[in-house]
Amino acid sequence: MKSRLSETLSFNGRGSIVCSCCEYKICDQDLHWKKSVIISEESMQDLCGDNYTVSQGLLLRRFFCPGCYALLDTETAIHDDPFLYDKIIK
Amino acid sequence: MDPITFSIIRHRLFRIVDEAVITLKHVSGSAITNEGHDLMVSLYRADGSLLMGGVGFLHHLTSAAEACKSIINKFNSDINENDVFLLNCPYTAALHTSDVYLVAPIHSEGKLVAWSACFVHVYDIGAMNPGGFSPESLDIFTEGFSSPGLKIVDRGEIRKDVMDTLLNMVRSPEMVALDISSMIACNNVARDRMQGLVKKYGISIVDEACSNLIDQSEDLLRERLLELPDGSWESRQYFNVKDETYKVILKMTKSKDTLSFDFSGSSPQSKYGINCSKWASWGGLFAPLFPLLCYDITWNEGVIKPIEMKAPEGTVVNATRPAPVSIATVGAIQAVNNAACTCISKMLSASDKYKNEATAVWHGSHFAIFMFGKNQRSSDSIGILTETFGGAAGARSIGDGVDVGGEIPNPISRMANVETMEWTFPVRYLFRRRLKDSGGPGTYRGGAGAEFAITPHDAPDGGINYVVSGKGTSYPMSEGLAGGYPGAPSRYTWIKNQKKNSDRCLSDDLLVGSNSYEGDKENISWGVFPLFGNDYLHVRWNGGGGYGDPLKRDLKSLEKDVNEGLVSENAAKEIYGAIIINGQVDLEQSVILRKNILNNRVRGGGS
After folding, report:
1. CB atoms A52 and B438 under 8 Å
2. Residue A30 lies in a domain
3. What is residue B357's three-state secondary structure?
């Protein structure tokens, strides 16, 4: 049975995490989904303009669905900081 | 117990807290209390456990419980009817020295039946820097008067020796005396009304209702947790002091009907006062938990029982004495607030039933600015610019964040009007308005923060000084959710040598929001600074986090944002993929642009 992992991701009930928008199968449900999607890392300031005059080392990580390119999640990070990992026990 | 009596007593407890809050505000003379609502009132059981959490800054509800318990342990047989105790030691229970707790036992028929507790941020506490936030203090010993427990009212009589000692150690003692009086009055009202309740229903009935109320809260929260999926969620907050960067790392784990918060991996404690103590972190995680998970549950000890916390000693979230903590409430505690808000919201997002309760972070960084000096009446004046309580709401899965919409940890936060601040300090406001491009981009936009500029006016000394302890300038702290971007960070700019007598006397550039000021400018964030002569202070405060993919924002909503000055045409194009020219959205071109941006994402790029 389908259930939510987040606003943008779902479990398809058959052991996989899928994009809620296009149903693209991202990875097995026990794996770290962020390692199986398109990732963009850009300087927060370059991306958002003058109001975001912040530490040059601060990145906005964006995680896109490989199927429909929908934005699945964002996180701010300093280079080399690990991905934030949200996990639901199935 | 019959449900009608239970319900009446429960509602009566709510009203007692409400009336006590009103009393506190009416007696206090400080804008931070009666305008900014930097306050809290709650009721506690005879053993000090939380019975009825009130409004105000919610991270104080659990800390004041520890204050009650500490007083019980310390004074034991010396707790009498109509006593009032003061406690403000951060390493005992308080959050920082200037948030002074006054806790008072409530007796009926000679028996201790409950406690009331309240706090206000007092006018001054005698720290190195006026107003309580003391960025120049590098240990607790220079952060002002600090007591782990002191009897200030003995059987209804104010202890003059104690009061005189306290007032001898602070600036503007007459205002601090008023703060203390407001808290005594508040506790008196709570005590009288509680005694009236006990007199009407009897000790045993009220005691049973209070016990049932705590059980009810525990049962309801555990039931709610069982409805939510088991799992773990992570969040991370960065903040800076000068050139040093700190992290608060949180992993929240939900298992069956319990919830645990683990702050392992957070930065070692700082030499600056942005640290917080263990009880402060404990309170900090409850500040978002109460409204987000328990919006329909009475906030009491029952809510606390299913929750656990791990905060390693020697870190910014559990500093060890004598580390400085005077900035805690707008430092590490706020990072704990934000991190907990994000983790709880991500858990709610994973539930079909509760997904609409999720929210991006609100007002991630306070920008506390305390003015001090002679006012236009040549009196000493110390106080906060209450704009920091104006806040900005995070976006939710069902709508935009409210512009200048407050903050999660304080449901009644607000700011004073400009005229009140101009009456309090010798300054004139050039403007105060919502700030363009400050709300975090998203399908639903984070609420806009705001900006203002002030300059000295009618100042007997030619100006006034101020203490600034901002830590959200290098990193945005209002995290987005579900693909939303964070809100823009705060910024403080000191503009020097403006030419007041020129044609550009109020700085045309500044008024239209340009960054190319006439005169020199310096970005500041930490320390004591002057505002004299022809100088200006321009403050921009952070917006709320966004929710969802910005490319999915409704184009007509964007057109409205641009026309209201909340989003620039450039941001609309670059971040949201919308072409808006002369206030009108070009639907056809916008659809094409969005398609191009989407396709660019395949290479890990595009907006």
Report:
1. no
2. yes
3. helix
Residue that is written with structure tokens 């029982």 in the block: B305
Residue B408 and residue B337 in contact, taking contact as beta carbons nearer than 8 Å: yes
Residue indicated by tokens 């639903």:
B444
Instruction: Report pLDDT for A57.
Output: 86
What ranges do the domains of chain B cover? Answer: 3-219, 359-548, 552-603
Q: In angstroms, rounded to a whole number, what is the distance separating the alpha carbons of residues B160 and B144?
A: 20
Q: Phi, psi (5° rounding) for residue B233?
A: -135, 145
Residue among B349, B352, B435 whose CB faces A6 most closely: B349
Q: Is residue A89 part of a domain?
A: no
- Answer whether B218 touches A (CB < 8 Å): no
Interface contact A55-B397, CB threshold 8 A: no
* Dihedral sign (CA B512, B514, B518, B519): positive
Task: Name the helix (H) or strand (E) containing A11.
Answer: strand A9-11
Q: Which tens digits make up the pLDDT trace of B84-134? A: 999 999 999 999 999 999 999 999 999 999 999 999 999 999 999 999 999
- Of the candidates B541, B437, B429, B439, the one whose C-alpha atom is nearest the C-alpha of residue B493 is B541
User: Is B230 in CB contact (< 8 Å) with chain A?
Assistant: yes
Task: Return phi, psi of residue A81, to 5°.
Answer: -65, 140
Side-chain-side CA neighbours of B456 within 13 Å: the count stands at: 25
- Report the gap between the CA of B345 and the closest CA in chain A (Å): 10
B58 within 8 A of B66, measured Cβ to Cβ: no
More confident residue, B499 or B126: B126
Q: Which of B548, B538, B549 is nearest to B509 (CA)?
A: B538
Q: What is this model's ipTM?
A: 0.98
Check if the beta carbon of residue A7 is closer than 8 Å to that of residue A35: no
Number of domains in chain A: 1
Alpha-carbon Rg of chain A, whole angstroms? 15
In a domain, residue A69? The reply is yes
Closest CA to B567 of B379, B417, B434, B432: B434
pLDDT in tens, B249-267: 999 999 999 999 999 999 9
| Contact between A60 and B233 using a beta-carbon 8 Å cutoff | no
The pLDDT > 90 percentage for chain B reads 90
The closest alpha carbon to A61, from A50, A49, A72, belongs to A72
Q: Is residue A87 part of a domain?
A: no
Instruction: Tell me the DSSP string of B510-537.
Output: HHTT-S--SSEEEEE-EEEEEEETT-EE
Nearest to B515 among A50, A62, A70 (CB): A50
Asked if B474 and A55 come within 8 Å (Cβ–Cβ), the reply is yes
Residue B598 to residue B607: CA distance in whole angstroms: 8
- Residue A73: list chain B partners with CB under 8 A: 482-483
Looking at residue B139, the DSSP 8-state letter turns out to be: S
Gap between the Cα atoms of A41 and A62, Å rounded: 7
Q: Show the domain range for A59.
A: 3-78
Q: Do A4 and B358 touch (CB under 8 A)?
A: no
What is the rounded distance in angstroms from the CA atom of residue B585 to the CA atom of residue B578? 7
Inter-residue contact B281 to B318 (CB < 8 Å): yes
B491 touches chain A (CB under 8 A): yes
> Does the global pTM surpass 0.90?
yes
